[in-house]
Amino acid sequence: MQSFSASPIIGPPGSGFNGGRLWVFPELDSTNSWALTHLEDLQPGDLVRAIHQTSGRGRLDRTWIAPPGRSLTFSILLDPTQFPVAPPLLGQVAALGIVQGLAAWNLPARVKWPNDVLISNRKIAGLLLEFGSRPDRLVLGIGLNVNLTHADLPPAQLRRPATSLQLETGQTFELEAVLQTLVRGLESAARQCASPADLRSAWSEKDALRDQLLQIETSGEIVSGRYLGINPEGQLLLETGEGIQQNFWSGDVERVRHISSDA
Ligand code: BTN
Fold this sequence. Notes:
Distance between the termini: 52 Å
Bound molecules: biotin
Helix content: 10-25%
């Protein structure tokens, strides 16, 4: 069911990403869903934020739970033809942008394929890239755990541990200021990733999966192997046997153990 959405407050050009506008809604079901159904009202770079997102969507048909006042939930409309990397790679550029934004608080964030952001192996941000009905429109959704406490998060021993800015620093954050810092990080990453090769090298510098033996769950199957990085198409590469390499477009990745890089 579509939730009620009061009129947004729309900021001036430049208040969003790369010259776009900031649209702030008190409540939306999902900022990605709203942006996808209002492509024609938006311009590339427009950023749609919901103060309260009631039915956030995550990757692999999961839900994204974001308590109002303690999380940032927003989507940015992008024109993928304006970027030098293939559209599916924009989620990876954005994950690097979040890492750059979090560096403002000296937080050593890392990226995890396909486009999660982790601190100390706990997820702090998730990204959902969705294609619009036009080839020159794409919606990038970002959820960041800001002032969440342990009570807001699933128990740490579960398979997918999470964290927040507050848990990492002991401070409480003003959401609007965090949003602006993240947007500057996203803009900086978009400039830095001027080619697929730049993206791969930036990714490998911040890669949380480096030197790991992994398990990937994909299409109901579990495959294990040594992580070899990402290829120019943004696929995950695993060595699954002596001299056998497999590429994956999507899936749920879990670390099994650390291995030395010369193993
Ligand atoms: C994931 O890690 O599974 C991706 C989570 C993406 C959540 C964000 S919150 C803003 C935007 N709107 C949504 O419905 N989802 C994304």
